[in-house]
């Protein structure tokens, strides 16, 4: 190559070089822009759905914590009774009335109701109380006898109308078919002379080798005790067969757990019955963004609450979703307030607009078995307000 040509080539290279580099940089920038424009692995829809799931999970956790607090508050308890599963097995009567209640839970469940109750939203409504017999005071005993039976009554029973009061006594199996004379006597202080006042006497035919539960109407006796608490020293129960053997189980002998006497008291507080309607329902996989009711099952065993006999779990449900202003035609006042003061209001919330109670069988702190209604524990309908 001629020297003059070499000089011309170098001159052109010096002039055009920056242009080539500029084109390379431009290509690199275009490639980077294309990579940025390509869709990522997580789309906006997936991100929004994930965020919605997190919100629902937070609401579920808050709802479970609220349910624990609400149950204790409505039962007027500061903390859960310290009753273990072993104590429950020991105290739980193996008796017909309790089994009937448990059978109701097995057959009906907690979500097959088409009516709900209107009641006090703050506290539980008690329907049935089962009181275990305890040992009477020494003032009515002679040489530690009798060891049964005393029943203590709360102010709540005294303030309500008694519908029924039954004393349940279990009879041990007899070696032969026989006639048993079941006797109930009121206990009085020994210093008063006669320590026994006869109340009731029943004649019962029993078969050989079969134990049985017997119930006695004690409503009249209970009414007297409630009017005159100072006369309640307890009762003595005997069930003599033809040979003079006492078949009444009145204290805990080996193998007789759950067979001790107890008193079943039915009280009436008469709430009104109303029809229940339903709102918008969703499942966990629903794409619905509006305010909706979602399923939530509460498991009391997960709480460690062995003191709740039944139900062991129930469907509580919860509310979640968005509340747009366009959905507030039913709530014009709320819409106008939010529009007039948007900064001072967080907007409409998705909250329960209809709730119903659950029936619960549980031990209280006095180890008495209570059957009653706990109000406002199930979300039946959700709405914006």
Automatic annotation (TrEMBL):
Residues 273-385 form the TGF-beta family profile domain. Pfam families: TGF_beta, TGFb_propeptide. GO terms for biological process: animal organ regeneration; cardiac muscle myoblast proliferation; immune response; negative regulation of cardiac muscle myoblast proliferation; negative regulation of growth rate; negative regulation of skeletal muscle tissue development; regulation of muscle hyperplasia; skeletal muscle tissue development. Keywords: Cleavage on pair of basic residues, Cytokine, Disulfide bond, Growth factor, Secreted, Signal. Residues 1-22 form the signal peptide. GO terms for cellular component: extracellular space. Homodimer; disulfide-linked. This is Growth/differentiation factor 8. The gene is mstnb.
